[in-house]
Structure formats: structure tokens, C-alpha cells
Design goal:
- The chain is mainly alpha-helical.
- It is built from 4 helices and no strands.
- The longest helix has 27 residues.
- It is elongated.
- The N and C termini lie close together (11 Å).
- The mean pLDDT is 92.
Length: 120
């Protein structure tokens, strides 16, 4: 996996999680700036999906392809689900869903790196 893309995804999602946590404590709904950070994180995840598929096809390492692609797709859908849910639930609970979605992406990202490293 490309280290720069992994760092970008982790940085943006941790930033989004931190902002969501602050907004949840303040009992505020998710704002436009948080959605902008989520959009940037989703763009980084999309780049990672394409790059991950290209690297998977070109690798000679013994990476579990089905599991790896499953985690890439899971990363791709986690943030939009959380964002749309928070739009439907404009309360502290909606903000908490965004926080959980961002933390889910962090956990999936760490596991994705482990799956890639296991094949090396």
C-alpha cells in the first residue's frame, strides 16, 4: 500500500472524528466544514481504492484478494452512510454517527494495512 495515501486517509478521518466529537459535546449538528473534511477523506479513500486495486493486480505477494477488496469497499461506503444518516438525524445522535463512521474508517484502514503486510 502507498504510505502517503494511508496517512492522508487516517489524518482526514481523525480530523473529522475530532471535529465531530467537539460538536457532539457542544450538542451541535454536523456543519458544512465537517462535511467538507468528510468529502476530502472520501476522495482519499477513492484514490486508495483505485491504487489498491492496481497494486493488488500487479503484486506477486500472497495477499488475500477477496478480503483486501472487501475492506477497500467497506472503507468507501462507511463515510457516506454516516454523512447521510447525520443529515437525516440533525441532533447529537447524528453527530455521533459521523464520529462512529470516522472511527470505523480508522479501524478499517489499520486492518487494511495489516492485510497488505501479511501478504508480503
Amino acid at each position: 500500500m502507498n504510505t502517503w495515501v494511508v496517512v492522508a486517509v487516517l489524518t482526514l478521518t481523525v480530523l473529522a472524528a475530532a471535529v465531530a466529537a467537539v460538536q457532539m459535546v457542544r450538542d451541535q449538528p454536523i456543519g458544512d466544514r465537517t462535511f467538507a473534511v468528510l468529502a476530502l477523506a472520501e476522495a482519499a479513500v477513492l484514490v486508495q481504492l483505485v491504487l489498491g486495486l492496481v497494486l493488488l493486480v500487479g503484486t506477486e505477494n500472497d495477499v488475500d484478494a477477496v478480503l483486501f477488496v472487501g475492506y477497500l469497499v467497506g472503507l468507501l461506503v462507511a463515510l457516506p452512510i454516516g454523512a447521510f444518516w447525520s443529515l437525516a438525524e440533525r441532533s447529537r445522535a447524528g453527530t455521533g454517527v459521523v464520529l462512529l463512521a470516522a472511527l470505523t474508517v480508522v479501524a478499517l484502514e489499520v486492518r487494511l494495512v495489516d492485510i497488505w503486510a501479511a501478504g508480503v
